[in-house]
Write a structure and sequence with these properties.
Blueprint: H1 21-28, E1 32-36, E2 39-42, H2 44-63, E3 67-68, E4 74-75, H3 77-82, E5 95-98, E6 114-117, H4 122-132, E7 141-150, E8 165-175, H5 178-198, E9 205-211, E10 218-225, E11 231-236, E12 241-244, H6 250-256, E13 264-278, H7 280-284, E14 288-290, E15 296-298, E16 300-306, H8 308-319, E17 336-341, H9 346-361, E18 366-369, H10 375-385, E19 389-394, H11 395-399, E20 402-407, E21 413-417, H12 421-426
Parallel strand pairs: 3-7, 9-12, 17-18, 17-19
Antiparallel strand pairs: 1-2, 4-6, 5-6, 7-8, 8-16, 9-10, 10-13, 11-12, 11-13, 13-16, 14-15, 19-20, 20-21
Helix pairs in contact: 1-8, 2-5, 2-8
The chain binds one RNA strand of 74 nucleotides through helix 10.
RNA sequence: CGGGGCGUAGUAUACCGGUAGUACGCUUGCUUUGGGAGCAAGUAGACCGAGUCCGAUUCUCGGCGCCCCGACCA
């Protein structure tokens, strides 16, 4: 894409109402726009990153048998009353509203009825599966979605890390036995580790022993080490063991075979969470199957979440430097940033145009900075935007018959002759 | 929800009980062109409401909005 056509612009200053690094950089570089506290819109560059993250997750979840759907965000109270979660003291972040009443007048008006905006989707997915699962032959089954959740948090905070409206990849597993459930649970944990590795935070993200909340005794969180994180985790890098501070009791330590003083205490961001649901929802909503003997048996469920937006924010928090964002290749909005330093020289522009076309023919997507601005501004913007590979075209590089290739991550610069460009980019 | 802070051009900020200033941006022109250029001209602003006052952007009260700490976080 030609940068001159991109409607967003970079900014020198961050808005004063953003303190979190992720929001400051993402807004300055034109990735996101703040609508209100806890609600952000995604702009062209931001949406590209978001979709890349989504695609990584999709590929890894499909690889373990996930089937993708989208459930409705609007929810009627009936289902949630069956699981006793319509009450505000059961889920205190409900956004509730009402259907518009018909007939309007005081005498003949009918009540419109209540509605909620889904903060999570255990109830509707369980009810949906109850329509399709009858026999042991229909199981196991794994269903997921990327879908917007609404949570009326008392306090939104930390930029895009904790918002009132956010997309979540939520996967639900439906199994016939505890053993079958555990088998998938482990597979999913491995898939999560692959996802975080591809997203560029594999080295600092740990599967973490955590509380299971109200559904089970324990669960597994995926925690990324980061000073600006909200969680505290005890980490044993050597053994690769991590325990959320909340559950780090003597009993747990004994179970894991680690002494407390062997741990390093770190701040972390929770980028994923997987946990057993047991039969909590299948029993409440009547999701049973007939086993081999014809007996109705409740389905054993599990739930697996990742917020792509929070993951995006975490990548920015962890990998950015003083100049701006540093995207890992797989999530970057573009793999290549062509920067033309022309100073008005038409030959340089023609050379950069040629390069842009060459990459297009090779199906390598590039952001092409064809703007008529000075070199310093282009470099500063390129650093801020954070595309992993920069190709600089100028009079100087042309005289040597090639381009400069610069790595955003470590700044290494190499000269590449015109004939070798596409080969080098494929490395 | 408890505590604290803050609302001034598109953005970041300053001053002030008496006609609101600067920088960046944006527009026009000339010069410039490998790390956020220079000169000139132009554009654009006090969250809303009430009160005090001759006069309020400034002081007081209320509302709304935003940020931070804590609590909370299926």
């Amino acid at each position: 894409m030609r940068q001159s056509q991109l409607f967003t612009k970079t900014r020198r200053d961050a808005p004063k109402d953003e303190v979190a690094k992720n929001a400051q950089l993402l807004i300055r570089a034109g990735y996101i726009h703040k609508e209100m506290a806890g609600a952000y819109s995604y702009l062209p560059l931001g949406l590209r990153v978001f979709k890349n993250i989504e695609q990584i997750i999709r590929e890894e979840i499909n690889a373990i048998g996930g089937q993708e759907i989208i459930l409705a965000a609007l929810q009627s109270p009936a289902l949630w009353k069956k699981s006793d979660r319509w009450r505000d003291d059961a889920i205190d972040v409900w956004f509730k509203t009402e259907l518009s009443a018909r007939g309007g007048s005081a005498s003949g008006g009918k009540s419109g009825g209540q509605l909620g905006l889904a903060p999570t989707h255990e109830e509707p997915i369980t009810a949906l599966m109850a329509e399709y699962v009858q026999s042991y032959k229909d199981l196991p089954c794994y269903v997921y979605q990327f879908q917007t959740k609404f949570r009326n948090e008392l306090r939104a905070k930390s930029g895009i890390m904790r918002t009132r409206e956010f997309v979540m990849k939520d996967l639900y597993s439906f199994s016939r036995s505890e053993r079958e459930f555990r088998e998938f649970y482990e597979k999913c944990a491995q898939a999560y580790l692959r996802i975080f590795k591809r997203a560029g935070i594999g080295a600092t993200t740990f599967r973490t022993f955590a509380s299971g909340g109200s559904f089970s005794k324990f669960s597994d969180e995926f925690q990324t080490v980061c000073d600006s994180g909200e969680d505290t985790v005890y980490l044993h890098r050597g053994k690769g063991i991590a325990v959320n501070k909340e559950v780090c009791t003597d009993e747990v330590l004994a179970e894991l075979g680690v002494k407390r003083d062997e741990f390093e205490e770190v701040k972390t961001i929770e980028v994923g969470n997987i946990f057993p649901l047991g039969t909590r929802f299948s029993e409440a909503l009547g999701l049973t199957y007939k086993d081999e003997k014809g007996e109705a048996t409740p389905v054993i469920m599990g739930s697996y979440g990742i917020g792509p937006g929070r993951l995006m924010g975490t990548i920015v928090e962890v990998l950015s430097d003083e100049k701006g964002i540093v995207w890992p290749r797989e999530v970057a909005p573009f793999p290549v940033h062509i920067v033309a330093i022309s100073g008005g020289n038409a030959d340089v522009i023609a050379e950069a145009d040629w390069l842009y076309e060459l990459l297009r023919e090779q199906r390598i997507e590039a952001l092409y900075d064809d703007r008529d601005v000075r070199a310093g501004e282009k470099f500063a913007d390129a650093d801020l935007v954070g595309i992993p590979t920069r190709l600089v075209v100028s009079e100087k590089t042309m005289s040597e018959g090639g381009v400069e290739m610069i790595s955003r991550a470590d700044g290494t610069t190499t000269f590449v002759s015109d004939n070798d460009i596409t080969e080098r980019l494929k490395e």
